[in-house]
Amino acid sequence: MAIGPWQIVLIIVVVLLLFGGKKIPELMKGLGSGMKEFKNASKEEDADKKETDK
Fold first, then answer.
1. Residue 24 belongs to what domain range?
2. CB 19 within 8 A of CB 27
3. Residue 42 covered by a domain
4. What does the pLDDT look like over 27-50, one tens digit per residue?
């Protein structure tokens, strides 16, 4: 069962009601920086693993 467009709209409306318009940019900024840190850590892990394999 896939998420349809109406479910996405409903989720967005609920998030807006819970957090308000001012808080959402802060949440997205935090989410973006967290994803960036995760990607950097996984790249470092891959590089360390390649060096160890040599």
1. 5-49
2. yes
3. yes
4. 889 989 999 999 998 888 877 777
